[in-house]
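Take the subject:
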Amino acid sequence: MLYLSLVLVFILSYSFYFYGKKRALSLKFKKNENLSSLPDYYGYYVVLLVFFPAIIIWFFLLLFKSNFQEMFVMSPVLFPDVATWSSGKFGLIMNKISNLSMIVNLSEIDLTVGDKSILKMASESEIIAAKNLANFDKIYGWSNLTLFIILPVLLGFLATKSISGKLNAQPIVEKIISYVIKGSSYIAIFITFGIFFSLVFEAINFFRYVNFMDFFFNTAWNPNRAFVIDASDGFDQEALKEAFGFIPLLTGTLLIASVAMLVAVPLGLLTAIYLAEYASSKVRDIAKPIIEILAGIPTVVYGFFAALSLAPFIKDVGEGVGLPVSAESALAAGLAMGVMIIPFVSSLSDDVIKAVPQSLREGSYAIGATKSETIKKVILPAALAGIMGSFLLAISRAIGETMIVVMAASLRANLTFNPLEPATTITTQIVTSLIGDVEFDNPKTLVAFALGLTLFVMTLILNIAAITIVKKYREKYE
C-alpha cells in the first residue's frame, strides 16, 4: 500500500501541472491579467508545491514504519519484561512475530503441517502480537493510501488558488530546482563519506585483533584460523598472524584484472575506432547494439561459460602443449571478464571519438595526413580524456567482479603470478567473509571491512593516477 501511495503522489502531482497551467491561462485570456511568467511555470509551481511536501511525508512514514510496528505490537501487556530485553533478543522476537503474522489468520488460509508446527511452538502472547501486526499492516496501508489521496489534492487546490498575475513563478520554480540539484549532489557526497567512515570504523575494530603490518605484508590467507579461541584470553594472536595475509588477494586481483584488461582494452578500443571512423552508419547501427548486449548479460552466465567451457578448453590446450593448467585458473576468469567489459571500453570510447570536432579531421586531411595518421595523431589525442575514462571504468569493473572469479578461479588464495594457476580476489573474499553464522565481532567477519577499505583506497589511487595522466597528455583544442 505504501508504494501504491507513492504512485498516487506522482499521478496527482502530474495532473495538477495541467490544472495550474489552465488556471494561469484563464487569468490571461478570461480575466485579462498580465502574467509575470509563462503559463508552464505556473504548472511547475503547483507540481513542486504538491510533490515535495507529499514525498517528504511519504519518506518519513516509510523510514519509521518499523518503529510504529514495534510500538503497536510489542506491548508491555503482552510482554511484561520487554524493557529488559537486549536489542538482539528484541529483534529475534520481532522477526518471529513477523513470520507468524503471515500464518495466524486461520479463517483465510489453509494451514500446512509446517505452519501448524510453527504455531504450536509459539506462545499465546506471540500469536496475539502476530495478529496485531497483521491488523496494523492493513490499517497502516489503508491510512497511507487515504492520506496520499487527500494530501496532494488539498495541496494542489491551495497552490492553484495562490496563482495570480502578480505571482512570478519562474524564479520560484528555478530556485527550488536548483536547491534540489544541489541537495542531490550533497547527498551523493555524504553517502560517499558515510561509506568511507563506516569502513574505517569497522576496519579499526579488525586491526585491534590483527596487526596492521601482519595484514598487509603476510603472504598466508587462512581466515579459518580466526575460530581458534582461548576461553580465557580470547583470540589466539599467534594464530591470527598467519590468518589474514593481504598479499595473495592483491596478486590474485591484479592478475585476473590484468588478463581482463589485456582482452578488453585492445579489442574495445579497436572496435570503437572502427565503428567511429571506418564503419558505415548502417553497420554502426547494427554492430553497436549487438556489442552492448555483452554488458547486459548476467555475470553468472559468464561464470558458467568460464567454468564449463573456457576453463576445460584452456586445460586441454595446455595439456596438449605440455603445460600444467589447473581446472580453475586465473586465465579462464580473466578471459571471461575481459569479454564482459569490452562494451565498457568500446561504447564509451566510440562516443568520445565521435564527439571530436569534424574540423580537426578536415584540418588534418588538408595538410596531407592519411586517415590512419589523423586517427593516431589528432583524434585519439583529442579524445584521450574520454578514452582514459573508459579504461578506468573497465578496470574498476574488473577489480569489482565477484561471480566469475567464484565460479572459474576458485576461492583459494594463492600467491602466484602464473595465470594458469587458481587465484582469488579481494571482492570474492569480502563475500565469503560475510556469509555464514559467524559473530559480527569476529575477525573473520570484520576483515571484510578492512578489505573494503583497502579496495576503496586502491580505487582512489587509480582515479588520481588517471586524472594525472589525462592532465599531462591531453591536448586542448579551442
